[in-house]
Amino acid sequence: MKISHVAIYVDDLEKMRDFYETYFAAQANTKYHNPRTGLSTYFLSFADQIRLELMQRPDILEHATKLLQGYTHVAFSVGDSAAVDALTTKLAQADYQVISGPRTTGDGYYESVVLDPEGNQIEITI
User: Which domain of life is it from (predicted)?
Assistant: First the structure.
């Protein structure tokens, strides 16, 4: 068994697609749009065949429930510490907020954490 995909609702679907394509080498499928509900989505595929679904619908706030527990971050393995450093620097230079690292964590992982355009935490690790 494997995880097929993770999905997140976003405000700006195109901006978020561009972010993941530009910095994480995602490949987007053709945009899906449901005219009845207003739902639009992209499935983003990565080299390891894991997919991230970006979803947007105009009435999301009408249906939103504040969650106290749940999603915290998506982690991308980039291969080695030099790649963690390079991608973190590239994102910082593009004015994305780096909120942690690069650093070695207390449990021995080398990582950084950045925020995507909508404030979701992205962990970049070996």
Answer: Bacteria
